[in-house]
Model the fold of this input.
Amino acid sequence: MEPAHYQKLYALLKSQIQVGNFKEGDLLPSENELSTTHKIARMTVRRALMELANEGYIKKVKGKGSIVCATRKSLGILSFKGFSEVVGAEYAAKTMMLRAPIEMAWPERFFYKLSPEEEEAGCIMFERVRFVDEDPVMLEYSYLPNQNLDDFCTKPLLDGSLFKTLNIRYHIDIESFEQDIRAIVADEIIAFHFKIKPLTPLVQIYRRYHTNVPDYFVYSLIYCNTEKYTISNHQ
Amino acid sequence: MEPAHYQKLYALLKSQIQVGNFKEGDLLPSENELSTTHKIARMTVRRALMELANEGYIKKVKGKGSIVCATRKSLGILSFKGFSEVVGAEYAAKTMMLRAPIEMAWPERFFYKLSPEEEEAGCIMFERVRFVDEDPVMLEYSYLPNQNLDDFCTKPLLDGSLFKTLNIRYHIDIESFEQDIRAIVADEIIAFHFKIKPLTPLVQIYRRYHTNVPDYFVYSLIYCNTEKYTISNHQ
DNA sequence: GAGTGGTCTAGACCACCTG
DNA sequence: AGGTGGTCTAGACCACTCG
Done:
């Protein structure tokens, strides 16, 4: 489906900021100007700018305009985006599949309460490490209820992206998520993957993604090494 | 100033959810219905519902309606709210001033880069511990550039709230913030305040609040004990 | 088919900032 | 005074869900 007008304008402005056509401190064209030049209503322009502001790309100031903000140095892992989007243009993102998808029973004492239907279906699990500039910064265990996911384990992920695979092959769209965050120390397995010493502190995130399919959720257990790159909500 | 229509509707619906007039799984009245009964345009209703959805109170489903979500068990510390709002109605929140506000020079190697004007002004610093149900969960060091804050150190905070004090006494409104999050281990001082063992992992947050006063920022250094209460974006 | 939320329009008035 | 973003209105068409 054709993206909405506000999404197209959002994507356009975001890429222009990332590419450097607009620099820190610059003013974006005014809402009326964008409305005229793109031939869309001002309310629609405002929606695009609202998203940019929520993600920290611009700051809106009444009476002045929309000011382009500095690009952040931290990884916007807490925001609801795919990994490569989250990392931003200034770093090189890479993902490695540590354990390919397999069908299995749910782990004991799973971190979210499962419905009887989910319990019975069992799960598909896989494990990936994410790198930023060659440093492993994120270890992610993904769990999908094993319902109507034919061939998931036999075909590789599309472009290495779980979201894209779910969308294109199974028409499942990720719409939102909830997460719980805590600090823990690395055990030996995790320390090995991150190439750090055991007992190094890590951020652990439990995450439940909501989809367009009623009662179908996707789960992730994430470990973040924040020694070199901190994490944040933006970008 | 009178709150906007969408803010009033947002606050009304939120309190009705918190109080239990709407329960998990319930549908809110439809947008058209809210528009009619409150005599405001549907776009204005939508803005109120948008905020509720962003904070996780409801989930909007096309063709069905706005579904009330379960209340979370974690503390929405990562969201941009005052502490008591963040904790939610189901816990008892308490704050203790550990060190009353004093004027001082900025710490060496401050966690954000300061402007020359901020450097020169020096800062006002104070230290608070936040309790949830009698457990210390958050240690917060607050730093304000010492500019035009007459009597800040000699009068107590209004209702114990920094935001309220800045707003009413100095007409400074907090409008947004940025934060960086990492995992660390407790040193002896922090462990003492949290009544935990040194080397317990903690979440550390650097935060910079943006205000309605140009180039005036408020800074916080926060430690969270996540052993008992995890943290999240919502509520 | 009736009702829902998603998107969009073309206006309007306001408070705020700057020259 | 002129331009900016903040709020608001009263419509409209669409895709979706459900009985």
About this structure: Helices of chain A lie at 5-19, 31-37, 42-54, 83-87, 116-121, 162-170, 188-194. Residues 4-6, 40-44, 47, 61-64 of chain A lie near DNA strand C (CB under 10 Å from a C1'). Chain A has a mean pLDDT of 91. Chain A has two domains: 5-68, 83-224.
